[in-house]
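Notes continue from the previous slide.

Worked example: a multi-chain complex. Inputs as given:
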Amino acid sequence: MFELTVSVSKTYKITIASDFSLFYERVLPFIKGENVAIVTDDTVDKLYGGAMDGFLQGKNIIKIVLRHGERSKNARNYLQIINALAENAFTRSDTVVAFGGGVIGDIAGFAASTYMRGITLIAVPTTLLAFVDSSVGGKTAIDLAAGKNLCGTFYQPSAVYINTAFLVTLPKKEIKNGLGEVIKYAFLSDTVCKKDIKKFDENLIYKCLKIKRDIVEKDERESNERALLNLGHTVGHAIEKLSGYKLPHGACVAKGIAAAIKVSEKLFGLNGDTVRKMNALLKTGKHDLNNPYSAEEISAQITADKKRQGDSVKFVALKDIGKPEIVKIAVSDLQKILKANES
Ligand code: NAD
Ligand code: GLY
């Protein structure tokens, strides 16, 4: 078992375990009130819904089951969740449990943060991506027609319980999806190395979350340093949106990191060895790194991104592995670099 404490606007513990044996001790004390809303998706509910209901026995449970997938992270489902809380007389002393992958974490977190201006949120993530990234740090969101994560809050959970046993049923493509974010950490800090990436164990999750925790503690609301966690996301989000969310988030982050390497090569004049080392690290996840969209399509999407500042974007570039740097780049210059690298 591994444990991390996150000290930001709220202090909370992340438990990383290989079963649920510590759930009562680590989570139940934080479940406030008699009413508990479990927000989950249909796949997770079918596989593990019964187990979660069992853990929360004795509470008045309501369950909101969304269809699996990114398209569920929308305003209609957000209203469905908060209306269910209101119709079941949830008060500020009750609790929302986000039980699922990053989609559920983001939308349930957004609902918990806004219902009655904020009720207790517990995160029980079930995907590799949610283990290493989305369940921690307090970003919540829904997507709007104009773009991904355009509506959201910063709202920290009261406890995070990671049970690696969930990985047993996670399809290979979702493991690969999570690996996109794992590789992001390997680029941000040399504490995650190639041999760690091949084992999806508690130690790898701990190492990734430690990197995230340390960054979030310095800059909870992304005024500056937290933007490092967006490595691969500027181009990645654009590709994800252009695909109509058919391409999963982590897979798009991997494509976005491939683009970030090309941009870094141009900006910093990286030498051939450094670029080869970076590309070798990126390939550990065996992602398809081809970008199916034109430079024009991508820059049009980036223009709609919330991270745009006038005609420029904050872009995470790499001087080397473990040496990321936030740069401001004109969207037109980014488009030129992407265009020059189109095959
Ligand atoms: P997801 O929640 O859609 O889960 C992926 C698929 O796996 C779904 O079909 C789900 O039903 C299924 N699944 C979940 N757990 C399972 C299990 N144990 N066994 C079998 N199937 C299971 O997607 P995701 O990749 O977990 O998360 C992606 C989302 O996370 C995106 O919306 C992204 O924007 C968001 N995100 C948020 C943050 C943040 O800091 N808030 C960070 C990174 C990503
Ligand atoms: N983009 C991930 C984070 O800031 O939490």
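Summary box: Residues 303 and 310 are 9 Å apart (CA to CA). The pocket of nicotinamide-adenine-dinucleotide (ligand 1) is lined by residues 41, 43-44, 47, 68-70, 73, 100-104, 106, 126-127, 129-130, 133-134, 137, 139, 149, 166, 169-170, 174, 177, 248-250 (CB under 6 Å).
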